[in-house]
Amino acid sequence: MTAGAAIDRTPRRARIGVAILLGVALLWTLVPLVWMALSSFKSDADVTSAEPTVFFEPTLDNYANLFTGANDLTPYILHSVLAAGISSVLATALGALAGYGLAGSRMRGKKHVAFWIISTRMAPIAVVVLPLFLLFRGAGLIDTIPGLVLAYLTFNLPFAIWLMSAFFAQVPASLEESALVAGCNRWQAFRHIVLPLTKSGLVTTFVLCLVFSWNDYAFALVFSGPNSQTLPMAADQLVTQTGIDWGQLTAIGTIVVLPMIVAGLAVRRWLVTGLTLGAVTGE
Asked: What's the whole-number mean pLDDT along residues 158-169?
């Protein structure tokens, strides 16, 4: 066997190995989601059957039951959309402003400031829940949408600042300096020159913050109530001491997961670009 043949065979084996690993990871991710979606269209007998049923007569009863009577899911969906959407928009906007200032700052210890900001995001939720609960109770924010928005913002904002500062650090300073020389003030240079160049970062930050807020259960469990409960809380109410309504539970799970999948696919080009270009900075 020649050396050239050995060299050609090595990359081929590596590609096959990578393909196998990706296939296993894809199956590990997709099979539970597909099975949950299929189960949401099954009857109670098929869902609770001891033997898995692949072929069945689909029904929409599980979804219909979610929007009728006391189990109406509409308020939960509205609460989730408001809390997750508003908090993600605020986190992205404030994160862009703070990240721009951090990236352009020349102060000493900028690296330490950036690390301190992201370290607040690393704190376990259980550590901050009690102090936040006491503050929110004193401010009258328990069982309110503004309270949930503020709770999500406490965890989303540090991540947004850290991520956006990495994107702004990659924008050449000469572009902003040229805009200033041309007569723009600092705000105009930021809005018309720097911000459009970081679209992928804005989209990435918004989507990641939205996913965290939309899927949150811990904050919703502590800070929400009858007037502000979100979709994860609605799913929790189907698990009772008398049993679990698996049909409706899989239907709620599908409703929770589907919007995030659609949002991720809709902005996948921006999301991939943002995660690969802005996640690491040398500053």
From this structure: 87
Instruction: State pTM to two decimals.
Output: 0.82
Residue keyed to tokens 């991720």: 264
Fold of 65-277: MetI-like fold (1.10.3720)
Domain ranges of the chain: 3-62, 65-277
Phi, psi (5° rounding) for residue 107? Answer: -75, 160
- Residue corresponding to tokens 């990641």: 208
Phi-psi region of 243 (alpha: psi -120 to 50; beta: other; left: phi over 0): left
Q: Tokens 């996640």 sit at which residue?
A: 279
How far is Cα 248 from Cα 244, in angstroms, rounded to an integer? 9
Q: What's the rounded mean pLDDT across residues 169-194?
A: 83
Residues 6+ apart with CB under 8 A from 208: 159, 163
Q: Give the residue from 192, 187, 202, 23 showing the smallest Cα distance to 96.
A: 202
Q: What whole-number distance in Å separates Cα of residue 22 and Cα of residue 29?
A: 10
Question: pLDDT of 233-265, one tens digit each?
Answer: 888 888 777 778 888 888 898 998 988 888 888
Q: Say what the pLDDT of residue 9 is.
A: 57
CA distances from 4 to 12, 15, 17, 247, 266 (A): 13, 17, 20, 58, 43
Burial class from Cβ neighbours inside 10 Å (0-12, 13-18, 19+) for residue 29 reads exposed
Q: Which residue has the higher pLDDT, 58 or 69?
A: 58
For residue 150, which amino acid is it? L
CA quadruple 26, 29, 33, 38: dihedral, nearest 10: 40
Which residue is associated with the tokens 């650090």?
169
